[in-house]
Design goal:
Structural class: mainly alpha
Number of strands: 0
Number of helices: 5
Strand content: under 5%
Shape: globular
Radius of gyration: 15 Å
């Protein structure tokens, strides 16, 4: 954890989800994202239920397979964003 705190390691979304689960909170809370004053709408990516579901599912996949899926998703995004 100290390496993350000192900025020596980058935190991945998977690690952020694990940390939030271990601490009994949400990734949004850890990152300091809150709804605008007077609003209860969360407009952050991590509050999207589909994305949260993908992160939870990815946590159950073998790390080697997870890396392969990440590369596939990155390739897909590169091809569809053109």
């Amino acid at each position: 954890m100290g390496r993350y705190e000192r900025g020596l390691n980058d935190m991945t979304a998977i690690m952020l989800a694990r940390l939030a689960t271990a601490l009994g909170t949400s990734p949004n809370d850890l990152l300091g994202y809150t709804a605008p004053e007077g609003s209860d709408a969360h407009l952050t990516v991590l509050s999207d239920p589909d994305i949260a579901g993908v992160i939870r599912a990815m946590l159950r996949i073998d790390p080697v397979e997870r890396a392969s899926l990440r590369r596939i998703a990155e390739t897909f995004c590169e091809r569809t964003s053109v």
